[in-house]
């Protein structure tokens, strides 16, 4: 295995409005140190992809961004959202997750109907107006490019859908809450190419009104859909830049090796 | 927009619900811990009084075989030797577990691996019915069937460790079986497929892959069965003979810790040595069930380490 100098780092500055940023985020699982000094700015209404080998810490980092690592790992440092450090102890985490949604690797719809899956979080949040619920149901399914496929079967079990449809249902479920930011942890890695390209189209469309941060193993996917890319290696962020720069002219040797497949 | 900023920092209905739920959980668990602590304290204080207040030597209690708490021997020491009961308790427990385990695991394998769905569906309630029969009924059956049967074959009174073992065998069988079934069911399907795809026969798959993977769970099942056998009082009392003698063989009348407790508890006066000595027996029982628990936990932890990648 090649060894790389973790001090070699290239983080480009973001010119646009920033939706979310982290400052010196450290993650510890017990004694093991999983993320070292992660500082990134995520531009608003853009897709940022996090790439890197398995175990490089990209998923762990993503989970910090809406406090899903609470009770799992020790997260230190600042995570700034709307000028508020959401990593602070006194923060209302439920409110954080309402604005920063997450979709997981394996499609995980509840064993309920499609309608109930979408309305679950809305009802929990005290939205009871029938008209509004119906409207959010339809727009979120439309935004996730699932409406035409399921509009006649809204009361059927979500588990009867195909894997790709289930994953788009999970995306619809998240955006029904109207979050600001959508975190996706390898949302297409368990899906076939056709479902994957549908998900990618969906994300492209969603990026007009959502800030999207996506972890992916698939470098083509990162280069196809994302505007910015961060490369993780062994818990360090090695390079962060516009996707076109990362994939055509990487600044750091480790990034170049990883992208060209001559890694490890 | 600043609205969101303040909402992020303020508590909401969700956080209050969270707090409320936490308070309920903590108070429930607090109550239960208090209850357990009280029981432990009560039994320990009563059981230890034999040694602290009445001056019985703890070592003699464990190793001597004369149990006459009301009398004193020629040196003036009270005769509180629990060894016969401890030995009998362990004998019936271990023998019953040894006898029941092969049958239980065999039944469990049949139900999970061999029988078709309908067969397993039929067997499930049969096993569950065995759990539900009250122990006094088991004892009654033992008294009127097993004891005369043993008497007919081996002579003597028919009461003794063998009769106790046979009754306990039937009583722990369903416990071990149903826990084994759970353990075998939790072996992932792909283990079976992986083994079969390598050309292993069904028997090789069951013996070398499934039983191996389920081993910690099966051991736990056996230990739970033993805990049940060790603690069973009524049914054993009805067939064991209730003589506080060192068991010489499997068919001589004997007495277990639990059967001694049930027969004697009404005949002693609170605060006297005979009563305290019974509490000491209860303390031994408590200690043993604690030990069984620890063993189960230890096996469970080792199993977990094995199953991690």
From TrEMBL, chain A:
InterPro entries referenced in this protein's UniProt entry, alphabetically: AAA+_ATPase, ABC_transporter-like_ATP-bd, ABC_transporter-like_CS, P-loop_NTPase, PstB-like
Stored CDD domains: ABC_PstB_phosphate_transporter
Residue ranges occupied by any ABC transporter domain in the UniProt entry: 20-259
Family matches, as Pfam families: ABC_tran
Gene3D superfamilies listed in its UniProt record: P-loop containing nucleotide triphosphate hydrolases
GO MF terms held by the record: ATP binding
Record keywords: ATP-binding, Cell membrane, Membrane, Nucleotide-binding, Phosphate transport, Translocase, Transport
Origin: domain of life: Bacteria
Keyword flag Transport: yes
PROSITE patterns hit by this protein: ABC_TRANSPORTER_1 (PS00211), ABC_TRANSPORTER_2 (PS50893)
Calcium keyword on record: no
Protein name: Phosphate ABC transporter ATP-binding protein PstB
From TrEMBL, chain B:
Keyword Transport part of the UniProt annotation: yes
InterPro entries assigned: MetI-like, MetI-like_sf, Phosphate_PstC, Phosphate_Transport_Permease
Residue ranges of domain ABC transmembrane type-1 in the record: 86-296
Annotated localization: Cell membrane
Keyword Lipid metabolism: no
Pfam families membership: BPD_transp_1
Transmembrane domains' residue ranges: 20-44, 82-105, 126-147, 153-176, 209-230, 277-299
Entry membrane topology: Multi-pass membrane protein
Keywords: Cell membrane, Membrane, Phosphate transport, Transmembrane, Transmembrane helix, Transport
Main subcellular localisation: membrane
Function: Part of the binding-protein-dependent transport system for phosphate; probably responsible for the translocation of the substrate across the membrane.
Homology family: Belongs to the binding-protein-dependent transport system permease family. CysTW subfamily.
Protein name as it appears in the record: Phosphate transport system permease protein
Organism whose genome encodes this protein: Companilactobacillus keshanensis
Lineage: Bacteria, Bacillati, Bacillota, Bacilli, Lactobacillales
Gene name tied to this protein: pstC
């Amino acid at each position: 295995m090649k060894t790389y100098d973790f001090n070699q780092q290239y983080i480009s500055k973001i010119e646009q409005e920033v939706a979310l940023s982290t400052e010196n985020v450290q993650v510890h699982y017990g004694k093991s140190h999983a993320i070292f000094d992660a500082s990134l700015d995520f531009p608003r209404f853009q897709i940022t992809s996090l790439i890197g080998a398995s175990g490089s810490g990209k998923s762990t980092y993503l989970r910090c961004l809406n406090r899903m690592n609470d009770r799992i790992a020790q997260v230190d440092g600042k995570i700034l959202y709307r000028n508020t450090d959401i990593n602070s102890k006194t923060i209302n985490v439920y409110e954080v997750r309402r604005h920063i949604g997450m979709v997981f690797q394996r499609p995980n719809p509840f064993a309920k109907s499609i309608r109930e899956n979408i309305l679950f979080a809305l009802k929990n949040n005290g939205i009871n107006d029938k008209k509004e619920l119906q409207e959010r149901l339809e727009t979120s399914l439309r935004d996730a490019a699932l409406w035409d496929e399921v509009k006649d079967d809204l009361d059927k079990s979500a588990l009867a859908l195909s894997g790709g449809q289930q994953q788009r249902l999970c995306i619809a479920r998240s955006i029904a809450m109207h979050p600001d930011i959508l975190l996706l942890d390898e949302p297409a890695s368990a899906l076939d190419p056709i479902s994957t390209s549908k998900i990618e189209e969906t994300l492209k469309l969603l990026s007009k009104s959502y800030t999207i941060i996506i972890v992916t193993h698939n470098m083509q996917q990162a280069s196809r859909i994302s505007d910015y890319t961060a490369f993780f290696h062994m818990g360090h962020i090695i390079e962060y830049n516009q996707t076109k720069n990362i994939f055509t002219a990487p600044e750091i040797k480790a990034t170049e090796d990883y992208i060209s497949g001559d890694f490890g | 927009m600043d609205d969101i900023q303040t909402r992020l920092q303020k508590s909401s209905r969700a956080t209050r619900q969270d707090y409320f739920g936490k308070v309920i959980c903590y108070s429930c668990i607090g109550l239960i811990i208090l209850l357990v602590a009280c029981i432990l304290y009560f039994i320990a204080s009563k059981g230890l009084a034999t040694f602290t207040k009445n001056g019985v030597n703890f070592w003699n209690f464990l190793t001597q075989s004369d149990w006459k708490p009301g009398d004193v021997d020629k040196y003036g020491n009270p005769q509180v030797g629990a060894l016969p009961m401890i030995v009998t308790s362990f004998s019936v427990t271990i023998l019953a577990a040894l006898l029941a385990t092969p049958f239980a695991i065999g039944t469990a394998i049949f139900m999970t691996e061999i029988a078709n769905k309908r067969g397993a569906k039929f067997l499930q309630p049969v096993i569950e019915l065995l759990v539900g029969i009250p122990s006094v009924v088991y004892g009654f059956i033992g008294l009127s069937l097993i004891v005369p049967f043993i008497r007919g074959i081996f002579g003597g009174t028919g009461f003794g460790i063998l009769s106790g073992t046979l009754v306990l065998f039937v009583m722990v069988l369903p416990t071990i079986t149903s826990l084994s079934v759970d353990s075998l069911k939790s072996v992932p399907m792909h283990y079976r497929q992986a083994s079969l795809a390598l050309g292993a026969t069904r028997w090789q798959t069951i013996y070398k892959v499934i039983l191996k993977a389920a081993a910690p769970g099966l051991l736990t099942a056996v230990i739970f069965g033993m805990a049940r056998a060790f603690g069973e009082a009524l049914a054993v009392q009805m067939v064991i003979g209730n003589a506080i003698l060192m068991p010489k063989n499997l068919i001589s009348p004997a007495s277990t810790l639990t059967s001694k407790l049930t027969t004697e508890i009404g005949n002693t006066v609170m605060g006297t040595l005979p009563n305290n000595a019974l509490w000491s027996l209860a303390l031994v029982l408590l200690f043993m069930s604690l030990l069984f628990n620890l063993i189960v936990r230890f096996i469970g932890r080792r199993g977990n380490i094995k199953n991690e990648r």
